[in-house]
Amino acid sequence: MNAVTDEQLHEQFVKTYGIEPEIRVTCPGRVNLIGEHIDYHDYGVFPMAIDASTVILAARNSTNNIVFSNFDPKYTSWESPIPCPWQGSSSPKWSDYLLCGWKGILDFEKSEQFGISFLLYGTIPPSSGLSSSSSLVCVSALATLCLIVQGDPFQHISRENFAHLCAKSEPLIGTLSGGMDQAAEVLASEGTALRIDFNPLRSKNIELPENAVFVVVHSNTELNKGATSHYNERVIEGRIVAQILKREFSLSTPSFRLKDIQTLSGKSFEEILKIVEEIIPEELTKDQVIELIGNDKLEECLTENTRKFTNFKLRSRARHVFSEAHRVELFESACESKDIKQMGVLMNASHRSCAIDYECSCEELDAICELYTKHGALGARLTGAGWGGCAVVLMAADDVANIEKLPSLFVSKPGQGIRVHRF
Ligand code: ADP
Ligand code: NG1
Ligand code: MG
């Protein structure tokens, strides 16, 4: 679709609903520079917001209906009378992402349901690792909040708490996701990347070296995470590793996040990686997991829609998580000392680890990384959950001419976070 102007969107809203919009919320997508599949273990990550975004126009209506429509006709409109009984979805449609944000805010505000009209328009390539899904959740949550409270919504709830609320709401579509995407999209400031840490959620603005250019390249493949079980499988495998390590270190914490286990064990990254090689089996069947940790501990790891899994890869998954978390630390130091070569080395290592140990790449993504590396990229890696979608490539500014003829989606500079305009 061609770019749509604010005026066209406004006109479409009035035409669709016969009322004026009260609010416009704009939320960016994000590209993760490094730190993949570790946010759900509470390890720090290193994303930045991008210019591509999702926009929502919103108003209260007097019809006692919740109505969502999309400027792009390929997304069919959705409507429900209130009270709407929605509690989540296991095969999400686009409207379900909006319902996540809507429900999160109504529950938080302890608000009665009321009639609302939303019109959505998004320019983030969907299912491509640039987190279009979270931007739908966040625009919906903020629009709902702004229809309930007056003035600046971030005087009412801090940006951190709002991002946390959105992160807790998105799993209603069935993905056991971490909090990176909502945090990146809510906490970003224009011009700087972010180092985000969890539990409690906090972020630090980090300036990227001036001679570093990040290019986002689409592999022309997509994966809708909500419609497959790859992502949840990885989360569960990590939880099982955590249970085995807890037993090894005699820890009594209820947490099954690998960062908590590492912290409580007092082990360095090098030490814990060595222990993983020594004691974590490469692969186990469900029965073997039960034999090793007991049925109760396995049950703690599973959710209703992950109970069906029968085989678990463990050692290589753990190797990825601990080594990737370590790479985030090293990347931050390299970035601060403006060592872009080292940043590239770490991005390449991250891609290898995602591809080989975490098995979340695909042929097309590997080919993109190879192609750009051949043309002088310092680093290239998949971004987001993977199995399709986009790669992020680091070029030295002087070498950008080398890639002019290659397919690229956009050159990315750190963009701003979610924002609201009241008409
Ligand atoms: P991503 O990596 O982009 O977050 P997900 O698989 O998590 O990918 O989410 C993609 C889903 O988000 C799509 O299948 C669609 O339901 C929804 N989505 C993304 N962009 C839009 C849009 N502009 N309009 C409607 N729905 C969208
Ligand atoms: P994408 O691919 O943008 O949906 C997902 C998760 C993140 C994180 C990354 C992998 C959601 C909402 N987001 O991102 O939490 O785990 O994969 O690093 O599921
Ligand atoms: Mg997503």
Automatic annotation (TrEMBL):
Tagged with keyword Kinase: yes
InterPro entries, A to Z: Galactokinase, Galactokinase_CS, GalKase_N, GHMP_kinase_C_dom, GHMP_kinase_C_sf, GHMP_kinase_N_dom, GHMP_knse_ATP-bd_CS, Mevalonate/galactokinase
Keyword line: ATP-binding, Carbohydrate metabolism, Galactose metabolism, Kinase, Nucleotide-binding, Transferase
Residue stretches making up the GHMP kinase C-terminal domain: 333-400
GO CC terms: cytoplasm
Signal peptide region: none
GO biological process: galactose metabolic process
Domain GHMP kinase N-terminal span(s) in chain numbering: 110-187
Protein name: Protein CBR-TAG-96
Species whose genome carries this gene: Caenorhabditis briggsae
Biological classification of the source: Eukaryota, Metazoa, Ecdysozoa, Nematoda, Chromadorea
